[in-house]
Amino acid sequence: MKAAVVIMQYDYGIKERGYSYEYINVYLPLCRVLGENNVKLFDYYSEYRNSGKAAMNRKLEEFVAAEHPDIVVFCLFEEEFSPDTLTRIRDKTKTAAYFIDDPWRRDYAEYWRPFFHYSTTPDYYTYMNYLSAGKKNIIYSPFGFNSDIYKKSDVPKKYDVTFVGGYSPFRRWVLARLKKEGINAAVFGRGWGSEWVSQEKMVQIFNESRINLNLSNSISFDYRFLISSLGSFKDLKQLYLLKKNKEQLKGRHYEINGCGGFQLSYYVPGLNLAYEIDREIAVYEDIDSLAAEIIFFLNNGDLRNRIADAGYERSLKDHTAEGYMKKLIEQIVLPNG
Fold it and tell me: What is the pTM of this model?
């Protein structure tokens, strides 16, 4: 079987930022499933930026015609594709849209789904809503993690508490509250004014941390947070531009556990389906209790290690990206299987 993957190869199309999520968790795992020679990559965003929308769409059709894939998997971003192009490709081979954030980009996903034979969602409850609404050919495909990249290593713990992720006003507020309570988390990621973290460094941090925080980056209506943002032009600008109004499971949930790291996360519906809470992952009740929970787990290393080990084993068993890509292909090739 031969597949084509139409994705943004680099993170937001910027080579200096490293490979994109979809390159790491869709393209590379598909290569493992089908064989590297049987998976062809089309970096649509580089073509779009270099040649423009019309030329990119034309080159995409030429690419599909030349490769004759049995299936084409797309990861959409904004409005780079022409509906006519997608329709003509759909008429020639099986196509699937791999959606990453449709729980909060519903209108966007609903517009593009009809141009593909199949489409995915990473969110279980969104999936169930699609089924109850009578939508066809929807595949539940959680994020998972690339087990060739996110690995457990036997290294000493360097940090008590870390957070790896991009700056957001809400995350800034949460970390500032922790600092006032004597918890100085080491913070890494875009927008914090700290060093750029490579993928290799991120995996190292997960392994070297006693507690890996996973903090929400969606809109919060906690009045204390909103008041704190009034004095920051940066925060007000980000809040104005932020489109994410619903939280969801993220790749980070799987990646931290896939490295064998202990994870203390916000709760989101569906997390309990991926990991058993209190046995495979820890969840803080609310922002007001977060500091106390951090101190509890810092003082209870044996419990912390048992949870981390159980989360790691569950990740390898159920949540590898390769496993999810294998299921995706099977559901498309054998839809009644």
Answer: 0.89
